[in-house]
Hints:
It is built from three helices and four strands. It has a four-stranded mixed β-sheet with strand order 2-1-3-4. It is α+β, with helices and mostly antiparallel strands.
Amino acid sequence: xxxxxxxxxxxxxxxxxxxxxxxxxxxxxxxxxxxxxxxxxxxxxxxxxxxxxxxxxxxxxxxxxxxxxxxxxxxxx
Length: 77
């Protein structure tokens, strides 16, 4: 099971990224656990300076933008 984290303060872009990740995971029929990291200190611990960011199994895959659903599929597969 993949552990997927959305790093961000809950802004509209963060919500959009979460929706896109859920759609991509559904398309892939992926077993996953989605969590949202909203604490600034925790986000900085990941080394992220711009949100939203996407981490998969503890590794930041993208930060500062919302990738397309197709791009997200490649990142979480």
